[in-house]
Amino acid sequence: MEEADVVKALGALAQETRLRIFRLLVVAGPQGMTPGHMSEQLGASPTALSFHLKELSHAGLIDVERDGRHLIYRASIPLMNDLLGFLTAHCCQGQPCLDATTRLDCSHC
């Protein structure tokens, strides 16, 4: 992961509402959520939610898919894992302290 991408992702998460949205989508898993459901859960106005979803999408932290008339948003688990890997790549003075199995794998969800 490039440093510029890390800065963009961390910048997008460095706002309370966007962090809450991202965490909500992580909990939702591969099923994802519609903006209406997120708005209900977070108590955010549709306009504000739309702004924050755009910022998270621009940073690559979320994906969106059209399902008929609905948009389904999902957390980008691979990007999240890359971000966590970048942040911990040189922990423990370069000695491996986590193995590859500690990465979040939602493929079985």
Automatic annotation (TrEMBL):
Keywords: DNA-binding, Transcription, Transcription regulation. Residues 1-95 form the HTH arsR-type domain. InterPro entries: ArsR-like_HTH (IPR011991), HTH_ArsR_DNA-bd_dom (IPR001845), Metal_resp_trans_reg (IPR051011), WH-like_DNA-bd_sf (IPR036388), WH_DNA-bd_sf (IPR036390). It comes from the Bacteria. Coiled coil: none annotated. This is ArsR/SmtB family transcription factor. It comes from Hydrogenophaga bisanensis.
